[in-house]
Amino acid sequence: MTYSNPVRIGIIGAGAVSDYHHVPGIRLDPRAELAGVCDTNEELLKQRASEWGLSKACNDPVEFCADPDIDAVIIATPNFSHCPIALAAAQHGKHVMCEKPLGLNAGEVRDMYQAARDAGVVHMTAFTYRFAPAMRFLKQLVTTGELGELRHFRSQRFLDWPETSWGWRQYKDTAGAGDLFDMTIHRLDFAVDLLGPLKSVTGAVARFAPRDTTTDGSVCPPSNVDDWSSLIGEFESGATGVWEGTTLAKGYGLSGFGHEWAEINGSEASAVYRLHEPNTLLFGKTDADLAPLPVPDEFLKPVGSPRDIHEGVPATVFRYDLVWEFVSAITEKRDAVPNFYDGWYAQAIADSVLQAHEERRWIDTPPPAR
Fold it and tell me: Which helix (H) or strand (E) holds 337?
């Protein structure tokens, strides 16, 4: 089926993330059209325009947001540029999806949320893993009470990454933080989505790898962000949570997807989501140890998604459903899930972890006022 008035989406930031799942997601959705690309790197801009078959290519994000032939933008640029681009998008009435973290701190994200809200545009945070089939099934088990009273949440995200330079990602002024903002923030989001607001947190971050050389051996300024993060949280419901993330877990390659373990222990049962096997949940009760439980077909993709659940690498293809949700929210004139408010709350919690570590204390984390 083709649509006479597809949502014309422009990509701002033509790097690997856009090529990996945003562009394929747009191509898959008959209600959407890839309308243009913007990147400040002229060489990459030219390459992507050719690869993606686009005539509209721009090196100025603000100018791109003002283009009348663009209805919506996806921001996949370095963290420090998210806020000004999102503000420009809202100013020009463009619907906007942005990669996480939404900003360098919660104050920036508050400004992004309020600007998009006041402009009446759809706004969405690219919290990818909410769309993993096992995560969607886990939420259903929580919602229906299958796990009983929710007591503990547990998250591990272990990656085996090279210890060479991360580029802009390894500096506070361009990234904000390291593993905490890049990886753990996802797990903060789906913990809140599953168990409700966090009451308070304490935590710590650390840096072990200097990352003072590039992959070709050139010397660069050393990293000043974390490559390990952890926190303990108390939910308003009374449940407890523990999170740990690292990029330095040797042997945790797992075909490039790394180790992800998100577990809920309830009074009746336990359930575990794992990224590298996103179509299978681990489930167990007393006297019935944790065992694989296939995700039912109805949770393998959102209703209406054109994605074929039998095609592609499971740990990759669910990511295309971000665009499906974004376009659905635009065409149905509703809020996207998750939106900038969700990104704001996750950012506020992550900021609190940094504060807690610096001040060696617990920090209260109520949801921000809408």
Answer: none
Architecture of the domain made up of 130-316+345-364: 2-Layer Sandwich (3.30)
Closest CA to 264 of 246, 286, 239, 287: 239
SS3 (DSSP) at 348: helix
What percent of the chain lies above the pLDDT cut of 90? Answer: 98
Longest dimension (CA), the chain: 62
**Whole-angstrom Cα distance, residue 155 to residue 178?**
17
Looking at the predicted structure, is the pLDDT value of residue 316 above 70?
yes
Rounded to 10 deg, the angle between the 106-119 and 340-359 helix axes is 170
pTM here is: 0.96
CA gap 318, 241 in Å, rounded: 26
Please give the structure tokens belonging to residue 338: 């998750």
Amino acid letter, residue 370? R
CATH number belonging to the domain at 7-128, selected among 3.40.1390.20, 3.40.50.12280, 3.40.50.720, 1.10.1370.30:
3.40.50.720
Distance separating alpha carbons of residues 163 and 154, to the nearest angstrom: 27
Q: ∠ at Cα 41 (36, 46), nearest 5°? A: 50
| DSSP run (H or E) holding 127 | none
Tens digit of each residue's pLDDT (9 = 90 or more) over 209-243: 999 999 999 999 999 999 999 999 999 999 999 99
- The closest of 8, 163, 146 to 74, measured between CA atoms, is 8
Domain locations in the chain as residue ranges: 7-128, 130-316+345-364
Asked if residues 65 and 42 have their Cβ atoms less than 8 Å apart, the reply is no
Dig out the tokens for 92 from the structure: 């020009």
